[in-house]
Write a structure and sequence with these properties.
The chain is mainly alpha-helical. Among the domains are: 57 residues, no CATH class; 112 residues, Type II secretion system (T2SS), domain F (Receptor-associated Protein). Strand 1 and strand 2 form a beta hairpin. Helix 2 crosses helix 3. The longest helix is centred in the last third of the chain and has 57 residues.
Length: 411
């Protein structure tokens, strides 16, 4: 199977490459070959340690091109396939060579090339992954611990399991919110058409009599006028923002952390807590399963929590545990956590089986989160429909009153 795009009509293609010399210094160069695979083989034959290889080509219209950045799905594929290849007894350098030849995604290929170059230069696997800057501390720590005991296959299995959980979790949340999002979008389109076209044309019929319209009609006319004045700017801003976000990395754009304040909304408070604790608990289970020591696992897992009202108190427990305090006792001091957390941790601490306790906590909070989402959506959908109906109803009644008012004036 050919995984590489060949040039049209057998023409040669030019590639730019980055490499490392024996002293570890990076250098750049270019090479001409029939395709990507041929260029890579030619460089290897010259004894060049390749860390990056890209085709030189014009980038016309790049502002409108979709950037295929390295993401969680790529990390999951690496971990899953590495686990399979290592389980079959293959050497790690050979496994990476297979992955490099099997991927069509340029960004992913460059990451793999950088990893295998560092490994062949004598660096450890964890250090090679860390040098790419694409993997979080949780993944690096799991590889480091397993590398020390010679169980890299198990590390990649645990990483793949954790990433699959993250990917599936986000997909389920997106699917759950898709229908409410569609309702909001449909409402927005409806109101845009009404205020942009229908209402202005309707009131243009009455001419100078507009000053004698009823109060609801005047309010509707004012809203329509404001909307017509700002709609062009809003649409232009959305288009420009969309193009900028496609060009830049959205992860690096710091937006106001509105998620921080959701914990103060009573109806969403439990939902946010269950979401964060399910992530935290599964991360703790995965780290402990991989052999990471508890304090380091706690530090890394608490860093995954996004809401500062939950993250801060849990992260502060690291120092108390280092002082020798019991794990269950320090978790009991975090008043935002439900009693089930310290109680189950106390059981696991006494039995010496904290790993399975965190798996059970994940299952508890995951179920609570799913049930909470279902209840919230069961309330949200009719609320959106009713709100839309009330607004449309107000507009229709206002238009009818306007017609009746003008008819009375003429009579």
């Amino acid at each position: 199977m050919n995984y590489y795009r060949r040039s049209a009509e057998g023409m040669l293609m030019e590639f730019a490459y980055r490499s490392l010399d024996p002293a570890g210094q990076e250098s750049r160069g270019s090479i001409t070959a029939a395709d990507y695979a041929a260029a890579l083989e030619m460089l290897k034959a010259r004894g060049i340690v390749v860390t990056g290889l890209t085709e030189k080509k014009a980038r016309a219209g790049s502002w409108f091109a979709v950037k295929r950045n390295f993401n969680d799905e790529d990390m999951y594929n690496i971990a899953r396939e590495m686990s399979t290849l290592l389980r079959s007894g293959m050497r790690i350098d050979k496994a990476f060579d297979i992955l490099i030849h099997a991927t069509e995604k340029q960004d992913l290929r460059e990451v793999l090339l950088r990893i295998i170059a560092d490994i062949k230069a004598g660096k450890g696997v964890a250090q090679a992954f860390d040098n790419t800057g694409r993997f979080g501390p949780l993944v690096i720590s799991m590889i480091h611990v397993s590398e020390a005991v010679g169980e890299l296959r198990e590390a990649f299995e645990n990483i793949a399991r954790y990433l699959r959980f993250q990917i599936q979790f986000r997909a389920e949340v997106r699917n759950a919110m898709s229908y409410p999002a569609f309702l909001v979008f449909a409402s927005g389109v409806t109101f845009f058409v009404i205020f942009q076209f229908i209402v202005p044309r309707f009131f243009s019929i009455f001419g100078p009599q507009g000053t004698r319209l009823p109060l609801p009609a005047k309010a509707l006319y004012a809203i329509s006028g404001w909307f017509n004045f700002t709609s062009i700017g809003i649409m232009a801003g959305l288009v420009v923002g969309f193009l900028v976000l496609r060009r830049l990395n959205p992860v690096k754009i710091k937006a106001p952390n509105l998620y921080h304040y959701l914990i103060f909304i009573p109806i969403i408070r439990k939902l946010v807590l269950n979401l964060e604790m399910s992530r935290f608990s599964y991360s703790m289970y995965t780290m402990l399963q991989s052999g990471v020591e508890f304090i380091k696992a706690l530090k890394l897992s608490s860093a995954l929590i996004q809401n500062e009202q939950i993250k801060g108190p849990i992260a502060s427990l690291v120092g108390q545990i280092k002082e020798g305090k019991k794990i269950a006792d320090v978790f009991e001091q975090v008043h935002i956590l439900p009693p089930i957390v310290p109680n189950m941790i106390r059981v696991g601490e006494e039995s010496g089986n904290l790993k399975d306790i965190f798996l059970e906590l994940y299952q508890v909070f995951d179920e609570r989160f799913r049930n909470g989402i279902k209840r919230l959506l069961s309330l949200l959908e009719p609320v959106i429909i009713i709100a839309m109906g009330l607004i449309v109803g107000f507009i229709v009644i206002t238009l009818i009153l306007t017609v009746m008012s003008v008819s009375n004036i003429k009579m």
